[in-house]
Design brief:
Elements: H1 9-18, E1 23-27, E2 33-34, E3 49-53, E4 57-66, E5 75-82, E6 87-90, E7 105-113, E8 116-123
Antiparallel strand pairs: 1-2, 1-3, 4-5, 4-7, 5-6, 7-8
């Protein structure tokens, strides 16, 4: 039996990012990919989640542009549907916020934000 009080899926996810690897969880029984990291598969409650590498390719599902007061630059917040099926929230760099579009293809990368590795997308 698993010791659920000692499992920290978010820490495991961050450890993969620190090694430069984008991995998310997949349920062995259903084959469905899961994001955000968790202990049980949503919908089924299965505790058979495994960490698997993903392509990092995806499609912008939704986005918003944040326009802070100058001199700060506008930036975006996106929801991306990974090709594997999971949805992830992040941002798209190397793209003018005015050029961002729903349905746009993007590719994940790992960059440091405030000293911690994070998933950030760029146009594919």
């Amino acid at each position: 039996m698993l010791q659920y009080d000692t499992i920290r899926p978010d820490q495991e996810f961050n450890a993969f990012l620190a090694k430069g690897e984008l991995r998310i969880q997949r349920s062995r029984s259903s084959g469905k990919y899961v994001f955000y990291p968790r202990v049980f598969a949503p919908g089924t409650g299965a505790d058979d989640l495994e960490w698997v590498p993903v392509s990092g390719l995806g499609t912008v599902y939704s986005f918003t542009v944040i326009r802070p007061r100058p001199p700060a630059e506008p930036y975006n917040v996106v929801l991306v549907d990974l090709d594997e099926g999971a949805r992830i929230m992040s941002r798209v760099d190397d793209c003018d916020p005015a050029d961002l579009a729903i349905g746009q293809r993007v590719k994940a990368g790992i960059v440091p934000i405030d000293g911690e590795p994070a998933v950030v997308f760029t146009p594919a």
